[in-house]
Design a protein that fits this description.
The complex is a heterodimer of chains A (about 140) and B (about 240). With about 140 residues, chain A is of the alpha/beta class. Chain A contains 6 helices and 4 strands, in the order E-H-E-H-H-E-H-E-H-H. In chain A, helix 1 packs across helix 6. Chain B is about 45% helix and about 15% strand. In chain B, the strands form 3 sheets. Chain B has a 5-stranded parallel β-sheet, with helices on both faces. In chain B, strand 5 and strand 6 form a beta hairpin. The longest helix of chain B is centred in the middle third of the chain and has 23 residues. The relative contact order of chain B is 0.16. Classes of the chains: A alpha/beta (about 140), B alpha/beta (about 240). At the A-B interface, helix 1, helix 2 and helix 4 of A face helix 1, helix 2, helix 5 and strand 7 of B.
Chain lengths: ~140, ~240
């Protein structure tokens, strides 16, 4: 991913101890593989934890949407500590509170509720992505 | 009464999102945690070493830890060593895939058959390492085995799971003029007092035995540790009784 490319980065926490971490991961894949594959890129959080220079440069060069599964907000914090800007931090729990019928279960494998909740998260992300890219385009033509 | 964490092995997976091998680490770790060694293992999210508190950063010093990485960048192993403690063992999926002659895993989101096979061999390797680490005398200060090859073992098995939000309490005590942080000491004191154990010679000896499970007590320092524990436990009981 080159710095000049118009992309929004998606950074999920991928938390391993709770189902909401898996929802964050699934939502990130849905956005970057299915819904907006050309307009988004995925950043591995472990690379930011390690301080990998390429990953740090990527989050500094592109707007980022983070997806966190718990209040510790590891993804948002790591993007900020890497010098990046969190355009929108999405908390899976908040999305769940707005969609109580989508109860996620399972960490290794999500139940149907978890898959649908991931989809709801993904829908919120693409609204942000579309808004960011439309704004960039608008500013280009202004 | 507070429960002391049982002796367990930590597992830290890189969970790298960009590669199928990252997904293999995550699923293999979960297989060990949930199915193969549920009572003997605990995990923590890698970013908590930075985003969490001191108790989270104590993870790899408290638990002998296996870092499970998808590729040779080895984010889990290197970040664990940088921010917590040196892992007791390392597993790299790409190495295991070569070793077992498997096809390259594909599908970070949904693993293909090679990926699923890689999960099985990775989980088996990690489970074997768990058994070795539980049998060995792990030295939390040096990050190495104190002596000899590990033997078979069992332990009482509280439920395995995620360690985030359950940071290990540490109390620093004066041992012969040196400030020594002792992991789990507040919990140990609480447990002893809850069991009605009054300060005294026999109880202090028992305290030392428990402290030794969670901390490295160097050879030849039993007397100094005993004096420190006797003093601190008496102070703890006085404070609680007040």
């Amino acid at each position: 991913m080159s710095p000049g490319e118009r992309k929004v980065l998606v950074v999920p926490c991928s938390g391993i101890g709770k189902t909401y971490g898996t929802v964050s991961r699934e939502a990130a894949y849905e956005v970057t593989e299915d819904l907006r594959p050309g307009a988004t890129g995925l950043v591995a959080l472990s690379l930011l934890v390690l301080g990998d220079e390429d990953a740090r440069a990527a989050v500094r060069a592109h707007p980022a949407v983070t997806i966190d599964g718990c209040k510790l907000a590891c993804a948002a914090r790591m993007v900020q500590e890497s010098g990046g800007h969190v355009t929108q931090g999405i908390a899976v729990l908040d999305v769940y509170r707005r969609n109580r019928e989508l109860k996620p279960q399972g960490i290794a494998e999500l139940n149907e509720g978890g898959i649908l909740l991931a989809h709801a998260v993904a829908e919120e992300i693409i609204a942000v992505v579309d808004g960011v890219l439309a704004g960039e385009e608008g500013s280009t033509h202004a | 009464m507070p429960e002391l964490p049982g002796r367990k092995v930590g597992i830290v997976a890189c969970s790298g999102e960009e590669l199928a091998e990252g997904t293999v680490t995550r699923l293999a770790a979960l297989k060990v945690l949930e199915q193969l060694r549920p009572g003997e293992t605990v995990t923590i999210c890698l970013p908590l070493f930075l985003a969490g508190g001191a108790g989270d950063r104590a993870f790899a010093r408290f638990y002998p830890t296996i870092a499970v990485d998808g590729c040779d960048i080895r984010c889990a192993a290197r970040a664990t060593e940088q921010h917590s403690g040196k892992p007791a063992a390392n597993v790299v999926v790409t190495d295991l895939v070569s070793e077992h002659g498997l096809g390259r895993p594909e599908g970070a989101r949904r693993l293909d058959e090679s990926g699923r096979q890689a999960v099985v061999v990775t989980a088996d390797r990690v489970a074997g390492l768990v058994d070795e680490l539980l049998g060995g005398q792990w030295n939390r200060r040096s990050g190495s085995f104190a002596e000899g090859p590990p033997a078979a073992t069992t332990d009482q098995a509280p439920q395995a799971g995620c360690a985030c939000g359950s940071a290990i309490p540490v109390q620093t005590v004066d041992v012969d003029g040196e400030a020594v942080p002792l992991a789990a000491l507040p919990l140990i004191f609480e447990q002893f007092r809850g069991a009605g154990k009054a300060p005294g010679v026999d109880v202090t000896r028992e305290l030392l035995d428990i402290v030794r499970i969670y901390n490295d007590v160097p050879a030849g320092t039993d007397e100094a540790y005993t004096a420190a524990l006797a003093r601190e436990y008496a102070a703890f009981c006085r404070q609680k009784g007040a």
